[in-house]
Amino acid sequence: MAFDRERMMFNRVAKDVELHVPVVCTECNRINSTQCETHNGGIEDVPIKVAGIPWAKLNYIKSQCVSYNDKTETQFDGQQYINECLKIMIVDAPWGATDDMFLLQVGGALGVELEKLIPSAYGTNDEEDEDIEETLATIKKE
Fold it and tell me: What is the pLDDT of residue 128?
């Protein structure tokens, strides 16, 4: 069997995803419609386009998120990892660019939904590819 270069290259095709973000009721500060059916709480569907991250770029992001202390112990900056992944993965969203300024202002409900898109930082590359495809498929179904 001959080497199939096209099959081995990363295909960065954006997929349509809907995030289901609980909306905080401005009347009673409850988060979802099961808690506040009489006011304006509920779930807002937020359509975005998401693409995966190529292997080399994901490895680069991981390496940038690792630091060493005086005792040569490693520390992983999970917040930086999440932000860098989201900035690459989200190719189209109603808020415009997914940049550091936007990510610093994201509320908890949207943040939780965005976090679901992130590939595991600790799995193998094959597992990460499967994880993101599975996550995108799950979110798309919801």
Answer: 47
